[in-house]
Amino acid sequence: MDIRKLLGLPDLLDVRSVVCVQPHPDDNEVGAAGTLLALAERGCKIVFVTVTDGGAGVPNLTMSREEIVEIRREERLNAGKLLGVSEQLELGFPDAGQYTEQEVVQRLIPILREHRPELVMTVDPWMPYEAHPDHIKTGHAVVHAMLFSGNNATQRGAGEPYTVPQIAFYASSHPNTYIDVTSYWERKLSAILAHKSQFENAEWPLLSNFFAYQAQQLYQAGHMEARADEVRYAEAFKLLSVRQLHFFPTALYS
């Protein structure tokens, strides 16, 4: 049974509004820039929400944390312009800090109720071996906010209740949706490279080759057709309805 079709939910590329919640500046670009470019071309409203300030992302002892945060903010804004992002919101929690998942949930619920997106996108917190606490807290906070933003008993005075219909996890080990991003690949790399503090270094040739290899493997995993002489790229997501986020054991295999 395809519960998403049963509920009449649109395909990923057909949604008209999306809120993309990332742990750090650059996560949305690495995980989903090609798909976001495709959505923007279709007129989708894209809102970025960045949970942390990125202040732990540059191991440079000559700069203060405040300087690093400002650099990463400018990089994030520049990358968003390349992707056609409509609005950028920052929660400002300390990168790798001691904030709690519940604090993030309380900040996200009013955002979901205000923007009322057809889809939320974020990192998959259940990816095996994911060790970064910011990624785990962010992913969990997003699904908790989805469950409770439609329930006025959970957070009063934070706008009219609204239930987000579905979620797309990138960086998922159990994807069920593959998007051909071949025509957007170079622009995706440009958006990633807009985060110069993270990627403009000696490791970029190796890292970009890894991104390309990974995307080619995802294209094959999605069983999309290509000529033998073609090089094609895909991004992959675990796409679930909100109903599959509670008491739904088969969501893993959906």
Automatic annotation (TrEMBL):
GO molecular function, one term: hydrolase activity, acting on carbon-nitrogen (but not peptide) bonds, in linear amides
Pfam (any one): PIG-L
InterPro entries named among the record's database cross-references: GlcNAc_PI_deacetylase-related, LmbE-like_dom_sf
Domain of life: Bacteria
UniProt name for this protein: LmbE family protein
